[in-house]
Design a protein that fits this description.
By secondary structure, this protein is α+β, with helices and mostly antiparallel strands. It contains 7 helices and 12 strands. α4 packs antiparallel against α6 and α4 crosses α7. The protein binds biotin (BTN).
Amino acid sequence: MISEHDIRRSLHTKFFGGTIYTFDSIDSTNTFARSLKENDRPDGTLIVADEQTAGKGRQGRRWSSQKGMNLLFSVITRPLFVQEKIRVLPFGASLAVADAIEQKTKIKVDCKWPNDVLIDGGKVAGMLIETTTQDDAMNVILGIGVNVNQTEFADDIKTKATSLKLHSRQEIDRVQLLCAILEELEHRFEQLRHFSPQIVLDEWKRRTTMLGAEITLVEHQSSIRVRAKDVAPSGALIIEELNGRRREVFAGDVSILQ
Ligand code: BTN
């Protein structure tokens, strides 16, 4: 099991991971984060679990993960950003996960809108970002799942999911990777706090291979082929339909197949 002691030994952050909760098994680290009272969740609180019995994915999906194999964690922050910066948080968080993975494994990863991290088209990490408001301040719960050492996946996700071990052919130290992600996340939060959110968006755009490519967009239960053109300052994806019509789509409304 990942222990608080092991994390503290390797973590070099200013405030991410200041308070740490670790679990052998829990329903969902995001759900636990939500249930904590204000005093029990200072800015940067980290919740890590070896297993989730009701792991949540985006758009009401489930997130499944074999016990003890992967990274399942949530960070609670009170970023005090203006709304236009909050919208760019998912891109900063994806860059943080991507950079930490590359740093620790030397595997080349790709970012997919809105906040998936892929290797050779297979999903290696995803995040579920939830917000709550307390005393007029926005609390962000950033839940991240990374497939680290799992090498077999259930039939329904087998063709879509991958893991770091499947690509590096060796066991990855989960604590070292977790600490690297937390350090990169803190860096991206600071960058967003002090600079224009466009810097983060531009960096994300340089890193993704999906802009310019044809993708399948699933919207209102039907799929259409479109071209991904750009990401708007709001974080919406700008797509072009085959008839040349351009429009913006939002992460909560659509999903994208390769
Ligand atoms: C997605 O790509 O659909 C988002 C997956 C997010 C999974 C993580 S695992 C830790 C945290 N707790 C949850 O219940 N979900 C997120």
